[in-house]
Structure formats: structure tokens, C-alpha cells
Design goal:
With about 425 residues, the chain is α+β, with helices and mostly antiparallel strands. The protein folds into 3 domains: about 120 residues, Beta-Lactamase (2-Layer Sandwich), CATH 3.30.450.20; about 150 residues, Reverse transcriptase/Diguanylate cyclase domain (Alpha-Beta Plaits, 2-Layer Sandwich); about 70 residues. It contains 12 helices and 14 strands. A 6-stranded antiparallel β-sheet has the order 3-2-1-6-5-4. A 5-stranded mixed β-sheet has the order 8-9-7-10-11, with helices on both faces. Strand 1 and strand 2 form a beta hairpin. Helix 4 crosses helix 6 and helix 8 packs across helix 9. The longest helix has 21 residues. The chain is globular. It starts with 16 loop residues before the first helix and ends with a helix.
């Protein structure tokens, strides 16, 4: 006897346009964070809750995952990473782009909230991300983790040991070069302490080691939280600056040099103040780490030949050299009337001091001073000039000063006689 079987109904997960529309409406309007990344890791959809949590209202589209991380780190908003941004991106990508499937994790935001995130990597390479507020359950665990991290940090007395080493820096450079492909800019600087042999011979190996530690301590204090400074070995260090122009990187490096030369040596536990010379290199998509170090080292050697406390930019002739002299052999560098052409001005020909000042109750205003070193002319400020501001934060005021400095220097390079 045959048993009559009830005809199976379609699965609940099957196509249902009305249900899909209702689900999409709920995601769009809810406080659940919702986002979609494509196979190239560009953010192609985010609901308003996600945009608000990561403060992406002013982000430029398209936005890559790396750009979202750096956007938040640069402003000290959105999600909190307890490491430098490049290390976070590198580690996160190994989890996000592994085998297709779902993973869950807790994300802590600067506004004090915790979200339980569910991230799914699909066979197509696309990623969907959902996050629900988990603050109440996470506060206790967060306090325990903060205490554990504090105890671990207190036990780390060797500053150099806390810096990324050469192997780690090579991996970070590889991660940065990949991020460049999605539109994130990076500036790299290789630095070497001036007169290190003299310090070693005059004061001994221990004093030379203290000088290295002093450099690491002051450099870490003066760069942004998501910048990287690492120890290459010997007297050399490497800086990686995400979303920082060559000009802004030079300004940061000169500020570090000023501190190293002006702060009292005895209070720092070193025999005497010192300086460093460095090269500045703009990272390009696909740059191999070894080639990046080679380019930076070649420019650093040029800086060392030209004196102390030098900042040289890769691909830009030194301020003390005539670019015309680099013309091919057999070509006459003189004009039709036998005159040597005027040397082309570069960023190294300007002294730039950027900062911010309080503008009463209105917030902060930019402070900027630009002097042309070739003749001492003050480029900015000038009579009747505009002062950028007011801004809500000192970081915004300083960033505006740097942007204005770049524009004014570019105009002066084009028309130095004005």
C-alpha cells in the first residue's frame, strides 16, 4: 500500500520579493550596523547606522576597507584599534579574506559603545557585515582586557624592543603598498642618527644604546597614533605615515629633529643632544618592500653626504645642487645667451612651521609661517592674509594649515619672483 506523502512546500529561505523588501527596509531604518564590501574590498553599501558609527559622512567614495580604518584612526573616531593601523589592516585581512564563511567579533567604538559584529565572506568574494549593540554585556570584559593590557605594557621597559623590527616593517610596507591600490596614500621616511660613531667612541656603547632608545621614545611621542616608527637595525629607523603628504611628513620629521637637538640631554639620560638625517619617499601601488627600502636608502645616503639634520625627498634634487647639472653628458646646461638657468625650487627650499591657536570661544585657528630659505623672504603671513578657521578641533586647524602651506609653496615655486 502506498502512503500518500504531503507535497513539500518551498523553503522559508527561498525567493520572496515581499519578504526581501521588508528585510531590506528593516536594515535601512534600524540601529543595526549593515554594510557590504565587494570582492575588491570597496564599501558598496552602508546603512545610516553604519555611516554614523564610523563617521563616514565626509568620506570620499569609493571607500576601501583600508581607507575606512585610516579615516577613523586619523580623526580618533569610530572604531578603536589597539595597534597601529597598518598592523590592524594586515591582521584583519588575513581573517576577512580567508575561507568563505562567517566570523563574529566585538568592535569597540570611541563613543564607548561595543558592537557584536557578524561578518560573512561569500563565495563571490563579497562581504556582508551586520553589527548589534552589545555594550551592556561587554563593559565588564573590556575592563578586564584593559587591565591585562596595562600590566603587560608596564612590564615592557625596553623601548626599542617595543618597536616593529625589520621583518615586521617589510610586512607593513607590503600591506601599505596594497592599500595604495585602493587610493590610500602613504609616505615613508628612513632616518639615521648623525654622528653615531662619535657618540659611541666618546661615551661608549651603553650611551649609544641610550641614544637609540631616546630617539624611539621621542619619535613615538611626536607622531600620530596610527603612524608607524620601527627599528631597521643599527642606527636606522623607518617611519610609515598613512594619509600624509611629503610636505607634512617633512614638517613632522623636522619637528622631531628640533626636539632631539633642543631638549636637555641630562634629563633624557643621554650624553649630548643629537640630530638625524632622513629620506622621504612616496609609496606607490605594488611597490616591493625591498625596492622601497633601496630607494629610501639611496636618498638617505645623499642626505648624509649633504650634511647633518637633512631631509631629502626621493626623486627631488638637493637644495644645494643645480638640477641642470644632472643633464646628460654632452648637453650644454646654459641658455642661448650663455646664462645658467635659475635653479628650480623644491619643498626643501622652504621653512614651514604649522600649528594651531585658540580662537576664544569659537574654537581653533590655524597658525602658519613659511619662509623661503634661498633668500629669506617671508611667504606667509602677509598683510591682509586670511587665517583659516575657526575649527572644532586643533587637529583640523593644523591640517588646514598644512593644506594652505602646500598651496602657497606650489604657487611660489611657479612664480618665485612675485
Amino acid at each position: 500500500m502506498k502512503i500518500a506523502r504531503r507535497k513539500k512546500r518551498g523553503p522559508l529561505s527561498g525567493p520572496n520579493h515581499a519578504a526581501s523588501a521588508a528585510l531590506l527596509s528593516a536594515i535601512v531604518d534600524s540601529q543595526t550596523l549593515a554594510a557590504v564590501y565587494d570582492a575588491q574590498d570597496f564599501l558598496v553599501y552602508a546603512n545610516q547606522a553604519f555611516i554614523d558609527a564610523f563617521e563616514l559622512d565626509d568620506a570620499r567614495a569609493p571607500v576601501s576597507f583600508a581607507a575606512v580604518v585610516l579615516h577613523n584612526a586619523d580623526r580618533g573616531r569610530g572604531a578603536i584599534e589597539h595597534r597601529d593601523s597598518l598592523s590592524f589592516i594586515q591582521d584583519a585581512q588575513s581573517h576577512r579574506r580567508g575561507k568563505p564563511g562567517q566570523r563574529t567579533f566585538i568592535t569597540h567604538f570611541h563613543d564607548g559603545r561595543f558592537f557584536l559584529m557578524a561578518e560573512t565572506l561569500h563565495e563571490s568574494g563579497w562581504i556582508t557585515l551586520l553589527g548589534v549593540d552589545n555594550t551592556a554585556q561587554s563593559v565588564h570584559e573590556s575592563r578586564l582586557e584593559a587591565e591585562r593590557r596595562r600590566v603587560g605594557t608596564d612590564g615592557q621597559t625596553d623601548v626599542l624592543a617595543g618597536l616593529p623590527n625589520r621583518q615586521r616593517l617589510l610586512r607593513l610596507l607590503e600591506t601599505a603598498a596594497r592599500a595604495c591600490s585602493s587610493g590610500v596614500a602613504f609616505t615613508v621616511a628612513m632616518a639615521e642618527i648623525d654622528g653615531s660613531r662619535a657618540i659611541n667612541e666618546a661615551s661608549g656603547h651603553a650611551a649609544a644604546q641610550e641614544t637609540l632608545t631616546d630617539f624611539a621614545r621621542i619619535s613615538r611621542r611626536m607622531i600620530r597614533a596610527h603612524d608607524v616608527v620601527g627599528w631597521l637595525g643599527g642606527q636606522q629607523f623607518l617611519f610609515i605615515f598613512p594619509e600624509l603628504t611629503e610636505l607634512a611628513a617633512q614638517e613632522t620629521l623636522r619637528a622631531i629633529n628640533h626636539q632631539l637637538q633642543s631638549l636637555p640631554a641630562a634629563a633624557r639620560g643621554i650624553p649630548r643632544p643629537y640630530s638625524f638625517s632622513c629620506s622621504v619617499y612616496t609609496l606607490h601601488p605594488g611597490d616591493e618592500p625591498a625596492n622601497t627600502l633601496k630607494q629610501a636608502n639611496e636618498t638617505l645616503c645623499r642626505a648624509k653626504r649633504n650634511g647633518r639634520a637633512r631631509v631629502e625627498v626621493a626623486g627631488v634634487p638637493s637644495s644645494g645642487q643645480n638640477p641642470a647639472a644632472a643633464s646628460s653628458e654632452g648637453n650644454d646646461a646654459r641658455g642661448d645667451r650663455g646664462e645658467v638657468p635659475a635653479r628650480v625650487l623644491t619643498a626643501a627650499d622652504y621653512e614651514v612651521k604649522c600649528g594651531q591657536g585658540v580662537a576664544g570661544l569659537a574654537g581653533y585657528r590655524s597658525k602658519l609661517r613659511i619662509r623661503r630659505l634661498t633668500d629669506g623672504k617671508l611667504i606667509y603671513p602677509f598683510e591682509g592674509c586670511l587665517v583659516p578657521g575657526p575649527f572644532q578641533t586643533p587637529e583640523e586647524a593644523r591640517a588646514a594649515a598644512l593644506r594652505l602651506a602646500e598651496e602657497l609653496m606650489h604657487l611660489d615655486m611657479l612664480n618665485p619672483e612675485l
